[in-house]
Amino acid sequence: MLKGFAITPPVVGRISIGRVVERNGMRLPEKDDQFTLTSQVQNRDGWLLHPLDEALRQQAGGKLRSLPVRLLFNDPSLNLRADFNLFDRTTGRPLCVGNGESCRRLGQEGIEALPCPGPEGCRFAEGQCKPYARFNVRIGEEDETGTFVLRTTSFNTIRTLAARLHYFEAVSGGLLACLPLELKLRGKSTTQSHRAPIFYVDLSVRSGMALEQAITDARRLDGERKQAGFDQAALDEAARQGFANGAFEELEEDVPAVVEEFFPDEQGTAAKPNVAAPKGLSGRLQEKIAIASTD
């Protein structure tokens, strides 16, 4: 296996609750009140819709506010990976990824393992680091290991999904990958949102199903898989090793779109990343490293 980049679950599409729009010559992230399933191909107008988007939308009779899903792994941390992330908005490259205890940081001599004080206490990030999560789910039955990925920087979404995953793992006896589940879009208002509704993603058992029935179905499916020779524990371990194979999860070719949608600059305008690393990157890194060394 090639070293240096993470081996992540195969992605066949994206789940979004927003998009990037062009307004007054600037590209800005814009939130939505429904899910959209897209392919991994985009043109000037944005990401192309995945065929499942239309099929599910017809079943829902309009807006997609819920999605039937299954998970690929029994381990919650393999399905949902959440970190504190700092990206270089000019190049679109990751600079530092941490969990509040330790981090992997791009330094002068390559990737360094360092303590992570979190966004509020990190002088290296200067307030530009924030939570960022990737949640992989299966939609449909055509591809047993292909997933749709939901990327988010919403603390409400990250906290809710993490709690649900651990709860469902516990009550099902570790059969998370066999449970019939559903992603739901929920709204709430806060003082920070000035009482306007904000939307976050939740995870529940399928509509019309009690938790006990979902667990019964999970046990049945688990039994069928074991009889067929399906080794869920080996799949989880393979994924665990794959994630550990690289310092950063995002591929370099994907990061510019991630930065544009989830890490816009302070003025709210989206950066237009340059794939080539400019000379200024080295200077900025040296300056940040010098500041961090004085802590």
Compile the SSE list and pairings:
Elements: E1 11-23, E2 26-43, E3 46-49, H1 51-60, E4 66-69, H2 76-79, E5 80-87, E6 94-98, E7 102-107, E8 110-115, E9 130-137, E10 147-152, H3 155-171, E11 181-189, E12 197-205, H4 211-228, H5 232-243, H6 255-262, H7 279-293
Mean pLDDT: 84
The coarse silhouette is globular
- How would a textbook summarize the main sheet? 9 strands, mixed
Total beta-strand segments: 12
GO molecular function: hydrolase activity
Protein name: Hydrolase or metal-binding protein
Keywords: Hydrolase
InterPro entries: Gp3-like (IPR043991)
Task: Explain briefly what this protein structure is.
With about 300 residues, the protein is of the alpha+beta class. The protein has helices at about 50-60, 75-80, 155-170, 210-230, 230-245, 255-260, 280-295; strands at about 10-25, 25-45, 45-50, 65-70, 80-85, 95-100, 100-105, 110-115, 130-135, 145-150, 180-190, 195-205.
